[in-house]
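Two records follow; treat each independently.
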Amino acid sequence: MKILKTYNELFESNIKILDFSNKKILELPELPNTLEKLDCENNQLKELPELPNTLKELYCSNNELKELPQLPETLKYLSCYNNQLKELSELPKTLIHLYCNNNKIKKIYGLSNKLNRLYCENNELIELPELPNTLKYLFCSNNKITNLPELPNSLKELYCENNELTELPELPDSLIYLECGNNNLSYEDLDGYWKWYHEYYPIHYPKKYKRYLVKKKSKKFNI
């Protein structure tokens, strides 16, 4: 086990990238105010120091973090999976990718309008916040979600299996992959699902849903 201390000599230069990953460290030093990328994954950190307002990428997965410090509004990429986080609040409006899976998160308070990827599977979520129109990939499996919010027209892949869903929202035309098994979905009420299921498995498509026939290909949906 190691503890890193602050060395003024180290931070005198214009440092933009720091990599402390895989060092078994317990604590990080004070960070330079020029830093743009911080990688401290695979350690034994229980907290992070104050983050500089210049930070664009933060990789802090596989630690023992119970909360995150205030995130700078410059942040675009956040990877914090495999920790002990219980909530995510005050996410930056600049965030594009968010990987917060494998935590104990019960609530996400809001998402960036620029978000492209949201990986929040294996948590304790019962609901999701409003989804931005830029979202393409949503992984929210293995939670306790009862209802999904409206899905954006940009969404390409949706993984929501192993939840407590009783219905699916309207599926956007952009969707090419869906995993929704192990929920409380009623077979008879999945009109939207069967509309898309036919595009990949037309032979097994129930006759009662022929009114949803479409001619798009290379789409896959599993229930």
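The next record belongs to a different protein.
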Amino acid sequence: MTEGGNGGDDRRSGNGRYGFRRRFRLRSRGMVVVEVAAVALALDQITKALAVAHLGARPVELVGPLRFVLVYNTGVAFSLLSGLTVPIVLVVVALIGLLTRFARTVPSYTAAAGIGLVIGGALGNLADRLLRPHGEVVDFIWTGFWPTFNVADACIVCGGAVVAVALWRAGRAGEGPEPAGSPLAGAGPGRSSAENGPSGPSAIGCSGSSAQARAGRGLSCP
């Protein structure tokens, strides 16, 4: 009894092995966010440097309408809201701060990876605005049916989708079956416990040898 009480106290207070496990999960998910963001940022900056060095004014044809075309823009993702560099920088910094706080409460490693992608992509475009001469972002991926974008833009969109799916799955997992101790745990769909047949001592007394004994005395089961 004492051990169970201490376990409950540990869960409530955050101390002991339960508190350690919770802190470890939060810390490890935070590391997932940092690592994924670092990889996304590095990949974005490397591909942009290669685009600036090798593309020039001549596009590179790939498959179908897909091609590499070097474009500079002062807007946000996919060349939107061009010319608003300072407001965009302020908004991006605020969003990165909010995502960093949200990353401490994510329900899974998948959601942590998605947040890392979004943060890494945001940092990639933010680095262009702060470090390039005119605050322009390098875009080089052209599909023919979508504005020109870069790896950072793709990370932001894919990361947002990953977070949305992870949160949706976490919500579905929270709507599980009734607990084992619930009166409706063994009931079928749309049926109450009374409709699912007798239970308790009377049902137990009508099974096996007890039922045969009642039948021999001319009695019937309840």
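Discussion point: Residues 18-170 form one domain. How would you locate this feature using only the token line?
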